[in-house]
Specification:
Blueprint: H1 4-10, E1 13-14, H2 20-25, H3 37-40, H4 42-55, E2 59-61, H5 69-72, H6 81-96, E3 101-106, H7 120-137, E4 141-147, H8 150-162, E5 168-172, H9 186-195, E6 200-204, H10 209-217, E7 226-230, E8 236-239, E9 242-245, H11 249-254, H12 256-261, E10 264-267, H13 275-285, H14 301-306, H15 319-325, E11 328-332, H16 342-354, E12 358-361, H17 373-381, E13 387-393, H18 399-411, E14 416-420, H19 441-451, E15 469-474, H20 481-494, E16 498-503, H21 507-517, E17 524-528, H22 534-543, H23 551-558, H24 562-583, E18 586-590, H25 596-606
Parallel strand pairs: 1-10, 2-3, 3-4, 4-5, 5-6, 6-7, 7-10, 11-12, 11-18, 12-13, 13-14, 14-15, 15-16, 16-17, 17-18
Antiparallel strand pairs: 8-9
């Protein structure tokens, strides 16, 4: 075959379509490792490539998009990275018969929250291993596709160049607004990749035909860069356990001319497309030659600048500002487990009268069902003027749901959020429920900070900036205290502005917490909770994660019953709260079993 860049300088090139969805349609089991099929089902992979070649594709992407050590490790295949990538190139070559270009496909390295994180250097090592295998197998171009983060694409591109790749192509997955994951525009991202050495740049893996065309209209590509486009077959529909795409081959063919007009030299398909889509486009694309110049249109940057976002108009004062003026008392008062709200609302009024500054509402803590804390906060606001801190756990919502909930907080005027990973569902009163955990607490903090810039996780322009005051948790009771401090430092670096702790029952631990956390420079609200009796103390100490009650207090409560035990627990809580206020500018009082009368007494005696 001729050099790919020479070919694109003179002619248009048709790429292939989606490989994963097509392999599934050919019988590959769902949830199967696609890339492993290079070894166990080579006949199926070879057939998929051959079908695309017969349909008219002049460039075949290898079945190696996720064939990196991190992704393959989920299937126990981390030691077969080189074998899977080399076989991927061989199968595409066999199917192409030496008559088409071979693109070594590499996708971004995705990690689930519970899988930890990778440093840039660790990612570089993974990309180096995969790219080396593809180059040694003889692919014509390293194709970095469907990257949502420019930094990740740039890193992978730099590895390809270091390894001497003869040619590198990059497609970015931008959404309808033309933004990448970090909020950068698609156009600036492609320009940056061009400056970093990518000769073929474009879009793929995120939008359908029409949205892809709209994105292309708004970008300018350097004359020495060739533009590619791999649109999806519309938006997917989930039906009977399977995703289906509705955009027809005829629809793709009808829009070929528009892609050519936007300067596209390499055109194919992505999610949901099949050899039928490629076959429909082939005769149409053959009628055209490369477009040297794009149609001139009015530039949009000035329009975007003119509507630069303003923060949502939220009247609620930041508790951090109040913290700098006076001691702040935050009270946790959980929403009820039933629809009987009267006692809860009575408690809200009583706590406000006792001097509380803010109410903090847990998000189904301990994975036990309660009335939505957002609904409870709205009800509480109708009866008091207390600030509200809403806990938000990653357990119950996926990335989409979490963002929707946060936007709801903002629209309703709630500024203060405590970002939590959340107790696992199996530990609560609905053990059959599923824990989601698309994010952990650190990822949630980063997400909230991103919303404060006016951009969603997908890079979507929100037309306004949220104004959240971001809180995080700290557990001083952990035997790994220093590790907890390091985690808190990471959370602060990610955007956390204050910390709230698990309940503390030891004055010495309060002093230790102050010694280590004061230098970090953020407000810290140490949790104080009165214990009601010996049984309550033993339960908290032995069965509730993150709580440790000294033997001395538990022993004292063993010899007391009824009101006397409660008074002893209240006395201990008062002494601890005073110790907190000696060290910090606020305190976090946790109300046990809706006993707001006890919390009210503490407030009146402390403030």
């Amino acid at each position: 075959m001729a050099n790919l860049l020479e070919y694109l300088s003179q002619r248009l090139l048709l790429g292939d379509g989606a490989l994963g969805t097509y392999l599934y349609s050919l019988g590959l089991p769902r949830r199967y490792c696609l890339e492993e099929a290079n070894l166990s089902r080579p006949d199926l992979v070879r057939r998929a490539h051959a079908d695309y070649r017969r349909a008219g594709a002049g460039l075949l992407r290898t079945n190696t998009t996720g064939a990196n050590r991190a992704s393959l490790g989920r299937f126990g295949l981390e030691e077969r990275v080189v074998e899977i990538n080399r076989r991927g190139v061989e199968l595409a070559r066999e199917a192409g018969g030496g008559e088409c270009f071979l693109a070594g496909s590499i996708g971004p390295i995705w990690l689930r929250p519970w899988e930890g994180s990778l440093s840039p250097e660790e990612r570089r090592i993974l990309y180096r291993e995969q790219i080396t295998a593809l180059l040694e197998a003889g692919c014509d171009v390293i194709f970095l596709e469907t990257f949502t983060e420019l930094s990740e694409a740039t890193l992978a591109l730099s590895v390809a160049r270091e390894l001497g790749a003869p040619l590198a192509a990059v497609s970015l997955a931008a959404f309808e607004e033309g933004r990448l994951g970090n909020g950068e525009t698609l156009g600036s991202g492609l320009a940056s990749l061009r400056q970093s050495g990518a000769r073929i740049v474009g879009i793929g893996g995120s939008c359908g035909v029409l949205a892809s065309l709209h994105l292309l209209e708004d970008i300018e590509v350097h004359p020495e860069a060739f533009l590619c486009a791999f649109p999806n077959a519309g938006k997917p529909e989930f039906y009977e356990g399977r995703l289906s795409y509705s955009a027809s081959p005829e629809y793709f063919a009808a829009n070929v001319e528009r892609f050519v007009a936007e300067g596209v030299r390499l055109l194919g398909g992505d999610y949901g497309t099949s050899p039928l889509h490629i076959a429909a486009m082939a005769p149409v694309l053959a009628r055209y030659r490369p477009r040297l110049e794009k149609p001139r249109r009015q530039s949009l940057p000035a329009i975007e600048a003119a509507r630069k976002e303003e923060p949502l108009k939220i009247e609620e004062e930041s508790l951090l500002d109040r913290y700098r003026r006076k001691p702040v008392a935050i009270v946790e008062f959980d929403s009820p487990r039933t629809l009987a709200m009267d006692k809860f609302l009575d408690g809200v009024r009583a706590l406000e009268q006792a001097g509380a500054d803010a109410l903090t509402l847990a998000d189904n803590s301990l994975a036990i069902l309660r009335v939505s804390n957002l609904a409870a906060a709205v009800a509480a606001r109708r009866t008091s003027r207390l600030h509200t801190i809403l806990h938000l756990a990653c357990r119950d919502r996926n990335l989409l749901g979490i963002q929707s909930e946060l936007l709801g907080f903002a629209v309703l005027g709630f500024r203060h959020v405590l970002a939590l990973t959340g107790d696992p569902a199996k530990a609560g009163d609905h053990p059959g429920a599923t824990s989601v955990y698309d994010l952990n607490s650190l990822g949630l903090i980063k997400l909230i900070a991103k919303l404060n810039t006016g951009v969603s996780a997908a890079g979507r322009d929100l037309k306004a900036k949220t104004n959240f005051v971001i809180g995080c948790a700290f557990n001083p009771n952990s035997v790994q205290f220093d590790s907890q401090v390091r985690k808190l430092e990471s959370k602060i670096a990610a955007g956390a502005q204050y910390a709230m702790t698990q309940p503390v029952f030891d004055a010495a631990l309060i002093r230790k917490t102050a010694e280590h956390l004061k230098p970090l420079g953020i407000p810290v609200f140490v949790g104080i909770m009165p214990v009601l009796n010996a049984r309550n103390a033993e339960f908290l100490h032995n069965e509730v994660p993150g709580i440790s009650i000294p033997e001395s207090l538990r022993e004292r409560l063993r010899h007391l019953e009824g009101p006397k035990a409660t008074e002893a627990g209240l006395e201990a809580a008062r002494a601890l709260a005073e110790a907190v206020l000696e060290q910090f500018g606020g305190v976090y009082l946790i109300t046990p079993f809706l006993r707001y009368d006890l919390t009210g007494r503490l407030l009146e005696e402390l403030l």
